[in-house]
Amino acid sequence: MVLDPGIELYWYGHSMFVTTGDGTTVAVDPVPPEVGYRYDPVEADVVLMSHQHFDHSFLAGIKGGGSPNAISAAGTFEVGKLTIEGIASHHDAQQGRQRGPNIIFTWEQGGVRLAHLGDLGDLPGPTVMKKLTGVDVAMVPVGGVFTIDGEQAARLVRDLAPKVVLPMHYATPDCSIKLDGSDVFTGRFGGEVRTIPDRPLKISADILPVKTEAWIVPYQ
Q1: Would you kindly state where each structural domain of the chain is located, as residue ranges?
Q2: Terminus of the chain with fewer CB atoms < 10 Å: N or C?
Q3: Average pLDDT of 86-92?
Q4: How far apart are CA 187 and CA 147, in angstroms?
């Protein structure tokens, strides 16, 4: 039996993640240094941006031979061996009237199905939830203020039931934006919470837990 090779995943703080697998590197929601997270430019084949706010669309933080693909819309996109789906949602609880649209991205990489929920501002309806069925690893905002808060995130994760949830967009010692800490979410999550020191985080289908776990990972 041939096992799926899995992926390597980095969190760079805020909502920025980079995943590598199947010969492709995906960067999501690149964060600028003004938010407090500093890093060397990251090489990527494609950049996914949930929306155009400054703290999620710092293309200067990405290098990819000069011009990586940048996707910030709903639809289906082919990048290398990956099929990436952008799903329309809202950045607020007023159908986007307050803060605009938000794109949720899903893709399978290295045998692991991932979802990045961007700056989700309201709990998704049944149409969106159906598209998220079967997600293994969900990157979910939990810091409130500009997104769903920790209590809403915990409710969403219980309904979505991914194998792993990676909290994001929350207060850290380096974050310059006022947000709630991850403890608001983890205190209401109800499942096992693990602090994973590994960087990169290596994830493959054979190590995924049976019941949903929240993994707190380091940022660079």
Answers
A1: 7-216
A2: N
A3: 84
A4: 18
